[in-house]
Amino acid sequence: MPELSQRLFFALFPPPTLHDQIAQLAQTLTQGQTGKPLHDLDLHITLVFLGDIPVAKIPCLQQVADNIRATPFAVSLNQFGYWEKPRILWLAPDEPIPALNQLVQQLTDKLTQHCAYQAEKRPYRAHMTLYRHATPCLNYPTIDPLIWQAQEFCLVRSNPQSTKNRYEIIQRWQFQTTP
Question: Would you identify the family this protein belongs to, as annotated (predicted)?
Answer without folding.
Answer: Belongs to the 2H phosphoesterase superfamily. ThpR family.
